[in-house]
């Protein structure tokens, strides 16, 4: 049966798209979208409209929860003025946060508060996008474009479920996808939903899902075993792998095919994360000697996010409360924290190394291709940022093990003509970083995937086409091309797009298969931007820093020349 109509209950919906004003005409920087989302949410809060405010990151959820509570209580917690504790207590009831990492009982308590109508305003990630009964809502605020049309419609549909009128306010950021919507709002409603992609041959996906399948019915490796899309030659080694590790039991009678049975234990699907690795999460443990709360688990953090949010000295926020990380036990996967009324939050500084270790399709003479890649991420330090103003007020060192990612990456090395044109290392680094930013967003738009599903890095090597050798990543995400970036860029830069999933998801391969069309579309997007010399929307932080520094060189012209040179490699 074909289902081609939406029969879910929904009243009339008003959808408003808000593009924050430009606050710096020189750089093209717009007013911070999180501050605008705060203002919009506060209007709805004062009108007593039950609202769900969706944020793109967990940190944004914590910041917005804190700011809305300050607005509700009529006091800024980071100022020296006395705090009205009664007003703050009421604000903590009316304004809640909800995100992954909160303990199940914490999430159930927030859900119950929403159903009872006590929590009028909830800031959340995609954790409340679907699958949870949260009662009736009147409005939804989207702090930034969610990344896909499907997610936008799903989140908007959380309000007005009882046939009552509802409002959705989408507050756009300066990101290219957001500004595409600003230029053409029909982008949201006039095109089909995004594609869902998965690489079924990826062992990181296949192995845990086979274990889940065996829990339902015994599995056989023969060709007609009923597992569509998996060849018997690939299926049997995977089942043997699970059997050797005691996760399945192998039974075989003489003359019959081997059968694999699940071994008693917890439901295996509970241990399969659809978005991250199979590594064990970190537990956040409170240290409060002499108190009944000493030793209680406050939250959980994904393995990949542990070094970013739980390094010693980090400030870990939970619904407006701030905790300082005193110690991180890496082996036991536990972070020990102490509650502290902090006036700042922390942001980790990341460093990345990339190498393509096994080519899939590579043109070594031209210096581009796609292959299996090895990425190593280190966190050498962190910044302290003041609540409210977000100004940098200090730094701190971090010493933790590196994280590794084995995935698939496409790469394009700067041609000799572009190297000759961009002879100055600083200018070369700025152009390569801005081009990487544009390619990253352009590829996500063409592949109809979320920007976060792809990662990008700009590396530099001593020579062209050194497969298997580490490429040192040019550090310039902040927009500043310092002495270290200049030294790195004195080599031969290469732009990498990689799948943000262990083993890959097929996105980088498809981006590379686009050939010159990828560069044509990105060039069209940059040329269509109204800026004269490059801005934060089309080229990211590099263009902003160049303009703010008063440079006379046009980053936009350099990027256009660079992308044309890369495009010509495919003609």
Task: Explain how this protein is built.
The chain has 18 helices and 23 strands. It is an alpha+beta fold and 571 residues long. The protein has four domains: 13-189, P-loop containing nucleotide triphosphate hydrolases (Rossmann fold); 203-271, Winged helix-like DNA-binding domain superfamily/Winged helix DNA-binding domain (Arc Repressor Mutant, subunit A, Orthogonal Bundle), CATH 1.10.10; 282-342, no CATH class; 348-568, no CATH class. It has a six-stranded parallel sheet, with helices on both faces. Strands 17-18-20-23-21-22 form a six-stranded antiparallel beta barrel. A hairpin with a 4-residue loop joins β17 (344-363) and β18 (368-386).
Spatial order of the strands forming the largest sheet = 1-8-7-4-6-5
- Any idea how many domains? 4
Give the radius of gyration. 25 Å
Q: Name the structural class.
A: alpha+beta
Distance between the termini: 46 Å
Query: Main beta sheet: strand number and arrangement?
Result: 6 strands, parallel
Estimate the global geometry from the Cα principal axes: globular
Our estimate of the beta-strand percent is 25-35%
Overall pLDDT confidence: 82
Helix content: 25-40%
Low-confidence stretches: none
Tally of strands: 23
Please tally the helical runs, counting DSSP H or I stretches of 4 or more residues: 18
Question: Layout of helices and strands, plus pairs?
Answer:
Blueprint: E1 13-18, E2 22-24, E3 29-30, H1 33-46, E4 51-55, H2 58-73, H3 85-94, E5 95-98, H4 104-116, E6 121-124, E7 139-143, H5 149-156, E8 166-171, H6 176-183, H7 186-189, H8 203-216, E9 219-220, H9 232-244, E10 248-251, E11 259-262, E12 282-286, E13 297-301, H10 306-309, E14 315-318, E15 321-329, E16 334-339, E17 344-363, E18 368-386, E19 392-397, E20 403-413, H11 416-421, H12 425-447, E21 454-461, E22 471-473, H13 483-489, E23 492-499, H14 507-513, H15 516-528, H16 536-539, H17 541-548, H18 555-568
Parallel strand pairs: 1-8, 4-6, 4-7, 5-6, 7-8, 12-16
Antiparallel strand pairs: 2-3, 9-11, 10-11, 12-13, 14-15, 15-16, 17-18, 17-22, 18-19, 18-20, 20-23, 21-22, 21-23
């Amino acid at each position: 049966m074909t289902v081609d109509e939406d029969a879910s209950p929904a009243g009339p919906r008003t959808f408003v798209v808000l593009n924050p004003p430009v606050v710096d005409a020189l750089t093209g920087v717009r007013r911070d979208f999180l501050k605008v989302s705060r203002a919009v949410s506060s209007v709805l809060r004062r009108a007593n409209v039950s609202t769900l405010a969706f944020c793109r990151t967990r940190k944004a959820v914590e910041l917005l929860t804190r700011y809305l509570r300050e607005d509700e209580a009529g006091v800024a917690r980071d100022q020296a003025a006395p705090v009205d504790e009664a007003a703050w207590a009421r604000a903590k009831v009316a304004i809640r946060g909800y995100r992954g990492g909160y303990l199940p009982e914490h999430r159930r308590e927030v859900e119950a508060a929403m159903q009872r109508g006590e929590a009028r305003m909830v800031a959340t990630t995609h954790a409340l996008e679907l699958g949870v009964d949260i009662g009736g809502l009147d409005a939804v605020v989207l702090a930034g474009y969610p990344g896909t049309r499907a997610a936008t419609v799903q989140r908007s549909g959380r309000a007005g479920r009882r046939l009552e009128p509802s409002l959705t306010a989408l507050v756009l950021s300066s990101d290219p996808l957001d500004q595409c919507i600003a230029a053409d709002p029909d982008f949201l409603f006039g095109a089909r939903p995004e594609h869902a992609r998965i690489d079924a041959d990826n062992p990181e996906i296949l192995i845990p899902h086979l274990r889940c399948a065996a829990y339902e019915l015994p599995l056989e490796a023969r060709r007609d075993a009923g597992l569509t899309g998996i060849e018997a030659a690939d299926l049997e080694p995977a089942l043997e792998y699970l059997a050797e590790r005691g996760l399945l039991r192998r039974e075989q009678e003489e003359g019959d095919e081997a059968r694999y049975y699940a071994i008693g234990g917890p439901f295996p699907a509970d241990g399969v994360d659809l978005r991250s690795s199979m590594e064990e999460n970190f537990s956040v443990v409170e240290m409060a000697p002499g108190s009944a709360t000493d030793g209680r688990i406050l939250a959980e953090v994904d393995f990949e996010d542990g070094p970013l949010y739980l390094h010693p000295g980090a400030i870990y926020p939970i619904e407006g409360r701030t905790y300082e990380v005193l110690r991180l036990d890496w082996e036991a996967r536990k972070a020990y924290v102490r509650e502290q009324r902090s006036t700042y939050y922390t942001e980790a500084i990341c460093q990345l190394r990339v190498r393509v270790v096994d080519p899939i399709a590579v043109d070594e003479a031209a210096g581009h291709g796609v292959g299996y890649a090895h990425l190593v991420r280190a966190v050498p330090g962190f910044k302290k940022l003041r609540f409210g103003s977000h100004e940098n007020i200090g730094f701190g060192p971090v010493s933790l093990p590196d994280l590794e990612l084995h995935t698939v990456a496409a790469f394009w090395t700067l041609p000799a003509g572009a190297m000759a044109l961009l002879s100055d290392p600083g200018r070369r680094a700025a152009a390569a970083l801005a081009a990487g930013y544009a390619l990253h967003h352009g590829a996500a738009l063409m592949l109809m995937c979320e920007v976060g599903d792809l990662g990008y890095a700009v590396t530099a090597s001593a020579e062209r086409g050194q497969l298997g050798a580490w490429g040192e990543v040019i550090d310039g995400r902040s927009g500043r091309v310092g002495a270290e970036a200049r030294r790195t860029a004195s080599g031969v830069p290469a732009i990498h797009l990689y799948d943000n999933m262990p083993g890959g998801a097929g996105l980088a391969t498809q981006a590379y298969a686009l050939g010159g069309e990828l560069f044509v579309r990105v060039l069209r997007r940059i040329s269509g931007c109204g800026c004269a010399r490059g801005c934060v929307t089309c080229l990211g932080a590099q263009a902003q820093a160049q303009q703010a520094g008063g440079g006379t060189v046009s980053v936009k012209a350099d990027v256009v020349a660079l992308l044309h040179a890369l495009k010509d490699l495919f003609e």
